[in-house]
Design brief:
The complex is a heterodimer of chains A (319) and B (193). Chain A has 319 residues and is of the alpha+beta class. Helix content of chain A is 34%, strand content 34%. Chain A folds into four domains: 55 residues; 35 residues, no CATH class; 133 residues, Jelly Rolls (Sandwich), CATH 2.60.120.1440; 72 residues, Phage tail protein beta-alpha-beta fold (3-Layer(bab) Sandwich). Chain A contains nine helices and 20 strands. In chain A, strands 2, 3, 6, 9, 10, 13, 14 and 15 form an eight-stranded antiparallel β-sheet that branches. A seven-stranded mixed β-sheet of chain A has the order 1-4-5-7-8-11-12. A three-stranded mixed β-sheet of chain A has the order 17-20-19. In chain A, 30% of the residues are buried. The radius of gyration of chain B is 18 Å and the shape is elongated. Chain B is an all-alpha fold and 193 residues long. The chains are: A alpha+beta (319), B mainly alpha (193).
Chain lengths: 319, 193
Amino acid sequence: MIERESAADIEAQAVRWVVRADQGELTLAERTELDAWLTGDPRRQGAHARAEAAWLMLDRAKALGGAPAERSLSERGRMGRRRLLAGLGVAAAACAAIVIAPRLLSARYGTALGEIRRVPLSDGSMAAINTDTVLDVTMRPRLRQVKLDKGEAWFQVAKDPQRPFVVESGPVRVRAVGTAFSVRRREGGCDVLVTEGVVEAWSQDVGGAPRRVGAGERIFVSDEVGPANPAVAPIDITRNLAWREGQIVLDGEAFATAAAEFNRYNARKIVIADDSMADEKLVGWFRTNEPESFARAAASSFGGKVTVRGDVILVEAGE
Amino acid sequence: MQDGRGRIVAWLGREILPHEADVRAWLRRSLAAAGDADDVIQETYCRLANLASIDHIENPRAYFFQAARSVALEQIRRARVVRIETVTQIDALNVELDEPSPERIAGGRRELARVQRLIAALPERCRRIFEMRKIEGLPQREIARRMGVTEHVVENESVRGLRAILAALAEGETNQDAVPRRSSSHDRTRKRR
């Protein structure tokens, strides 16, 4: 194999470019050369950004020499405001407001393809966010509101009877007080899996009472029809939530279904060339980010073969 | 676009670089022979620099750890030496994340002191150049004129200085006096495969 450029060599080059750019605008030829260099290896882009960041960070040193004006100005500004507040006799209240205000603001959490994040929410709840998901969390005085535009998330909800925790996904609503459950957005509705306590689920577009779903139960809530009957499936649920540990656990899923599951997490997609294999049932434990080893394991178990071309992991029937 | 990049580079300097030494230490501990921490760090910076938005990142330290973790896992996967203990080590990351970093609490004044220390630790000629460039704000050409050297010399010294500063950041300059440093993963010119 070709000798791989060392990280140290890359860094030396990257630093040279940063210093060069500091001498004045790069010429068009230099710019082109730099771009060509950068596209050669993502490590170069990283080293370049890192060197630029360090170089720029050193500008903080300006505060040691010239331009002290900025700092004293802002300090004076702060003092002025402080005095004003004290004069009104609301300094304490204002301080309290400053502390609490950010908690009312909403926060957005997004995950990229293949990314799985755990985030603590400001009310003490916890969210595990699966691949390719967008979550908007707003903490209001009487409501903890979570919008799930796409993707999947599991919530461990801190108990607070005064402030229900409601997940909104399209017209679907899932309400909990203190419990743990997951919501996955699908075409036309949501899958809800409950691991602890009880939730209530409904669709806003449909009348009728919310459906209660208990621990160990799962339910599909259709946007247009509302909740189906809950199914009891505790082992299923644990398996279906294995993504929280970056795993996919298969127990009799069809190959096509399992492949689609891997494809949620990876830019490299598994493509099944022959329908004859699509229904093969599989059992196994895999990491979400290892579609290729999954495809190979699956193919070898029913005599298929795997070819990888670019972003496609093609599985074909053997002879 | 250029503006967006400027913002991200500034963010990297302010919120990410201060944690690099910790991320490196963690990588060295968990990767063992499975990968090269220097490579992982560079690729991680690449990912961070290419982020479409940084507004959603509430805890840059944790984000940095997570990004490095995912790059490391990707690398292990590519190398196909998936050793269970390596993966487990990498999965043990959560423990590390919640430790509040001293940098986080400290804020601006400490950052300033750190920059000052970094520059002060440079070799004599380098240090003078960085002081003129970064404290007094003189352009490289003017620095060359004042020192009576060619611009090329200033360029070379600047390269040397910035590399020294990057190395100090990689080692965690705050512990520099306390911990005897060696292992200088930095000067290593290791070729893989």
